[in-house]
Amino acid sequence: AQRSPSEPSIHNISYLPPKLQPYARLARLDKPIGTFLLLHPCLWSASLAASPLGSYPDPTLCLQFALGSFIMRGAGCTINDMWDARYDGRVARTRDRPLASGELSYGRAWTFLSLQLSAGLAVLVSLPHAGTCFAWGAASLPLVATYPLMKRYTDYPQLALGLTFNWGAIMGYVAVRGGEVDWTVVGPLYGGCVAWTLVYDTLYAHQDKADDAKLGLKSTALTFGKRGTRPILTVLTGATWAGWMIAGYNCGFGEVLDAPYYYAGVSTAGAHLLWQIYTADLNDSENLAYRFRSNNAVGWIMFGSCVAGNVMAG
Length: 314
What we know:
By secondary structure, the protein is mostly helical. Helix content is 72%, strand content 0%.
C-alpha cells in the first residue's frame, strides 16, 4: 500500500506571514477542495430555486455563498481538529496538523474559531430572507459541532458528514424563496447530495483505515470493507443520480427531451462517480486523494446543469 507521510498541500500558502500559516493550515486554506464541496449544493439549490423558470441564479447570492462556504468550511475544520487532535497525532495523514503537532494551542484555536464563527454569522445575516436563513443556519450548528465525534460512536460517520456538509442544498433554496420551500425539489436534492458524500468520503476514508482500526475509530471504509465498498457505493451512486434527476423533474424541467442539458449533466456526474469507484485503488492514498479532489468537477457539472435546466424550462 502506498501512503503519504502526511497530507500534501494543494494550495501554496507560503505568501502568508509565518505567524499566520498555522491558522491557514488549521482552516485548510492549503486544501481548498472542502470549500468547493460545501459550496456546490448551495449553488445548485439556488439555481433550481431561481424563479420564474427561465431565470439565472443571482450572482451576488452566489458570491455570498462562496464567502460563507470558505469561512464555515474553515470553522468546521477548526472544530474537527479541536475534537480530534489526540487522534490526529497518531494517524500518518494528519499528524502534522497544527493542533496535533502542538504548533497551535487550544486557547489560540478557540480564539480563531470565535473569529471564524463571527464572520460566518455576518455572512448569514446578510443573505436575503435573513430571518429564515438565520433559523435554518442555526439549525445546522448541532451537526457542525458534533459530526467530528461520530467516528467514535457509529459505523457510519460519513452519513453524519453528508447531513452536515450538504445543508447548503436547503440554504440555497431558502435564500431565494424564503419560507416557501418546495420539499419535492429540496428533499431529493439533499438526499442525493448526502449519498454523493457517502461515495466520495468512503473512498477518501480508505486512506486512514489501518490507523483508524488501530485507534478504535469507525468509518464506512471499515464498515463496508474491501469487498463491500464498490457494490455499496455503486448503489449509493444510483441514489445520488435518482435524487438529482427527481429534483429537476419536480422543479418543472419536464421530461428528458424537455431539459436534455440538465438530465444529461446529472447522468455525466453519475458516470464520474462510477469512474471514481471502479478506478480507485483502495490501498493507494495518492490515488484516493486525486479522486476525492475530482469531485469538484462533479460540482461544476451539476451547477451548469442546474442553470441550463432552469433557463431552458422558461
